[in-house]
Structures
1.
Amino acid sequence: MGGEACRTSGPGAGKGMTTTSLVSLEECCLMPLAEVHLALVLKWRNSERIRRVMFSNHVIAEDEHRRWFASLQKDSNKDYQVLLYRQSPAGLSCLTNIDRTAQQAEWGFYTSPEYSLKGLGRALGYLAMERAFKSLNLSMVYTNTFAFNVVALRFQEKLGFIQLPGNHEHFHRDGRDQEVHRLELTRDRWQEAHR
Ligand SMILES: CC(C)(COP(=O)(O)OP(=O)(O)OC[C@H]1O[C@@H](n2cnc3c(N)ncnc32)[C@H](O)[C@@H]1OP(=O)(O)O)[C@@H](O)C(=O)NCCC(=O)NCCS
């Protein structure tokens, strides 16, 4: 599947990526989720690896997926971007509940279960936060992550997200209460780390 050519995202691109990363930022870019990505994104979203960490974890049917995509076209409070790695789709980043007055949004993300390249998540996170704080002019991004999803929590902390003390909620899923952690990243903190 094709996509627009990858470009670096300006001064500071690549900062924070270690030399041991197999994926370099220059090989990655974001592009808006389009019809051409739908089948692949549904396959990712329905994979066991992604469903187990999502709040809604039923297997999504194709018509439900298409209706969801159609509704996105009319919803300016959501921003779905596909990560391209060497011009092939390799992950998804979504900003939802975009509140332009408060300049805040909730972030969700995953890399393709078909790739296991070190640094792919990090590139996705970097590009997603640059988009949130520069292109969309948000001042704060937050996430809600299950406590059992230790990899995603570590990953966000590496990006600079902070877990607010005492800010834990519960979500009833599969017959039990699961602890959910809310994490936040402010534009100031992001810019400070990527000056
Ligand atoms: C979270 C996710 C994006 C990380 O992607 P990734 O490609 O593995 O990440 P990277 O290789 O770039 O690693 C970035 C950081 O993530 C953390 N991380 C990645 N794999 C990890 C693991 N197995 N154990 C602990 N931390 C891990 C580390 O902090 C790592 O930084 P480091 O290598 O400097 O220690 C990916 O695992 C994913 O898509 N998970 C499922 C979706 C999900 O949980 N989404 C959140 C809910 S919305």
2.
Amino acid sequence: MWRWNDDSDIAGGDRVGEIRLGQQVLTLALRLDVDGEGDIGFDIAVPCPFDPECSSPAWTPAYSVTCLHRALTGDLDYRDDIVCTVHGGYDDIGQEADDHAASMDDDADGRADLEEQYAAAVRE
Ligand SMILES: [Zn+2]
């Protein structure tokens, strides 16, 4: 269910692990210094919230196992502490993020449908 993916460099050199739950795979990065004081923590890979075309990994902190479950349901996709490898975080995006949030409303139906698919996958 858990395996390390030592060939992956998507976390900028940090160790990458995968959790497989049914048909879904959660990608996690092991951060060895999350707060500048040497504390260890995990980030969860989520879709880039800033650009739907962006294929770079974006990361959000995993505070608990609950976060893992929420990541599977897509619940973390709009968190404001997501940082994309290319786009940075919401603080870096500023005005652009506001524009993007407005355009994302158009996709609300597709999003809802995606959550349905996730939910169905989890039930199987
Ligand atoms: Zn991005």
